[in-house]
Request: fold
Amino acid sequence: MLTLSANAKINLTLDILGTREDGYHEVAMIMQEISLHDTLSMGKINQGISLTIVIEGQQGTLQADESNLCWKAAALVQKEYNLQEGVEIHLTKRIPMAAGLAGGSADAAAVLKGMNYLFRLGMTEARLCELGARLGSDIPFCIMGGTMLATGRGEILTRLPSFPRLSVVLAKPPVDVSTAWAYKTYDAGYDGPHPDNEAMLEAIHGGDAHKAAGLLCNVLEGVTETEHPVIADYKRLMMEHGAMASMMSGSGPTVFGLVREKQQAWHLADTLKKYDGEAGVFVAETLG
Reply:
């Protein structure tokens, strides 16, 4: 059996530039890989696809069938390369679901990598990203990882220098947010701030964590926060208890805080758990 980690992401910035002719939104965002991860075990079987899922530490269910992104990724590779043998996949789920952390995309990216290795297909990173983009806009980033500027609908990636190593405290409130709803609500009329991506790029190239922390900005945060005020509460608590900066990731509802010291990060996590016993709270770190 082959074992792979599927790492989550956070957004350091997220800007929406307009709506494309294909119906997707034109975005410009800076994404960062973090150490919070799911684990996948994969192996060959005689035929077909077998998917089993164990969910750790959170409520909810995932369908282990053709609707699952892991299944779709395996099926796409089987079709593209006319594979006669099958694959079994066991997913241990830790990344919160429907949380703005690209958990499903990370799992699909890991399956694409695993299929490439198990069946010795020789796919390049560019080929893996091309297949991944057919399934979801965040999957190419999850294949490449690190720190990236993402444009287009999110699939056009420019690698950046590694973001400074920081602890990341994440808190996912017990609410679900539809990405489609968030974008639709944004389209109905957003008049909040937009990120300064150029300044953020300059901070990252200069390795200036303090400056970068002050430039966090996500245009969907205000949209989701209006519907779920708990997001603002989490941000306030994080800033009051030592975070350099705090923001919602993606379309939410997960809030993250950037923290310099790991001990301080664990203290902040304990504070959040005491404030909201139903929150999913995690401590991770940025990855290069």
About this structure: The radius of gyration is 19 Å. The first strand starts at residue 2 and ends at 19. Residues 35 and 284 are 5 Å apart (CA to CA). The chain has a mean pLDDT of 96.
